Amino acid sequence: MILQNGSKVWIQDKDLAWIGAEVIDSSSNRIVNLVTVSGKKVVASREDVLPRDVDEDEHGGVEDMIRLTYLNEPGVLYNLRRRYELNDIYTYTGSILIAVNPFTKIPHLYDTHMMEQYKGAPLGELSPHVFAVADASYRAMMNEGKSQSILVSGESGAGKTETTKLIMQYLTYVGGRASGDDRTVEQQVLEVSYS
Ligand SMILES: Nc1ncnc2c1ncn2[C@@H]1O[C@H](COP(=O)(O)OP(=O)(O)OP(=O)(O)O)[C@@H](O)[C@H]1O
């Protein structure tokens, strides 16, 4: 990584994990002098600093992290945090959806109006949302006539069960009643047990 005076970087921080900084002296081959965003002057080994996007001050973060110039750990965490602070709990990295558990109900995020909006909308056209992924999967199933899979992964308490329920809720909404089955999709979904 080429470092020069004024380069924006990330350095590790014992309290915050990562903190933004700017290079103020890059004359040494081994170390760089930096000033952190909180105004503290620090010295770091060149190999310990990671590049930071120059447009990182963009309000609200990016909806798709493919747009980040540097897809490194601090850049990803910082982007997710900024979105989370605005209650934007969903973020794409390409066609992968990242959900940050809000641990609280976010009004209107999952109501009928929201489901209606995502119905038939191409992935990426609207803000990142679990309904967009469910809709893409549903469309692919209908168009290709093949079963589809959605992988919901995360650590314990991350929100996998809630996310799965939301996917089922959306599929119930768009799916209606299966032919030859007297039960509504909603009834069938309610019979699904979550592990
Ligand atoms: N999208 C969401 N909106 C609001 N609250 C949520 C959301 N997702 C998760 N939660 C909250 O987080 C709690 C834990 O989520 P959940 O049970 O889905 O996690 P999990 O990944 O299935 O956990 P485990 O692997 O331990 O079973 C939920 O009971 C709920 O309170």
Topology:
Elements: E1 8-13, E2 17-25, E3 31-36, E4 41-45, E5 50-51, H1 73-85, E6 90-93, E7 96-99, H2 112-118, H3 130-144, H4 160-175, H5 185-190
Antiparallel strand pairs: 1-2, 1-5, 2-3, 3-4, 6-7
Helix pairs in contact: 3-4
Short description:
29% of the residues lie in helices and 18% in strands. With 195 residues, it is α+β, with helices and mostly antiparallel strands.
Structural description of this entry:
With 195 residues, this protein is of the alpha+beta class. The chain has a five-stranded antiparallel sheet with strand order 4-3-2-1-5, with no helix packed on it. A two-stranded antiparallel sheet has the order 6-7. Helix content is 29%, strand content 18%. It is built from five helices and seven strands, in the order E-E-E-E-E-H-E-E-H-H-H-H. Helix 3 (130-144) packs across helix 4 (160-175). The protein has two domains: 8-51, Roll (SH3 type barrels), CATH 2.30.30; 87-190, Kinesin (3-Layer(aba) Sandwich), CATH 3.40.850. A hairpin with a 4-residue loop joins strand 3 and strand 4. The chain has helices at 73-85, 112-118, 130-144, 160-175, 185-190; strands at residues 8-13, 17-25, 31-36, 41-45, 50-51, 90-93, 96-99. The chain is elongated and about 75 Å long. The site of adenosine-5'-triphosphate (ATP) has 12 residues, from helix 4. GO terms for molecular function: actin filament binding; ATP binding; calmodulin binding; microfilament motor activity. ATP binds at residues 154-161. Residues 60-195 form the Myosin motor domain.
